[in-house]
Amino acid sequence: MLLARFPVGALGCNCSIVADPATRDAVVIDPGDDAPRVLDVVKAEGLTVRAILHTHAHLDHVMATARVRAETGAPALLHPGDRPLWDHVEAQAAMLRQAGVPVGPVAPLGEVDRPLADGDAVPFGGVSIEVLHTPGHTPGSVCFRFDEGDPILFAGDTLFRGSVGRTDLWGGDTATLLSSIRSRVLTLPDETRVIPGHGPDTTIARERRYNPFLT
Fold this sequence. Notes:
This protein is α/β, with parallel strands linked by helices and 215 residues long. It has one domain: Metallo-beta-lactamase, Chain A. It contains seven helices and 14 strands. The chain has helices at residues 35-45, 59-62, 65-72, 83-87, 89-98, 174-185, 204-210; strands at 2-8, 13-19, 25-29, 48-53, 76-78, 114-115, 121-124, 127-133, 142-146, 152-156, 159-160, 163-164, 193-196, 202-203. The strands form three sheets. It has a six-stranded mixed β-sheet, with helices on one face.
């Protein structure tokens, strides 16, 4: 497996690009708002993007989607629970600007090409990535589980190192979030590497033992 992981944009969203080294087929997870950087990695590694995956539809995870889709031809996938956020991305931008966050112009996202559902397997090359529906941060929040080699969970804003996703934004619900984490995330193997939507990586074992929101 090839993995590129880097923060993008004013809010430091972690974008991940996962590729099958044999075929160079790849998926982009949460392109954030820095399309040039995402596309530079794709070009430098000689990758063919087969899907653009979104853990949820908050602005800082989706702003680059339109350009990445246009230049790679890859479909954009999102859980239907977050379609209202997707459709009102400019309203999200306006709220952040009012809060003093330097958000630039937002290109229309267009249609979602394919919906994500719990248990889906998204193939690329000779491998695939599994969808886990983990609502709470948003209604349509998902995590992506990749078990080819060392297990990895792309957790979006559901789980962070020492913290959990905020629930004071539209559609957030604390009880639902904690239930998702305990029933869908903490049940994964201890050695699973967790790549969150922001900040440093962690492991399932570490969060089960030390995360103050979960102990």
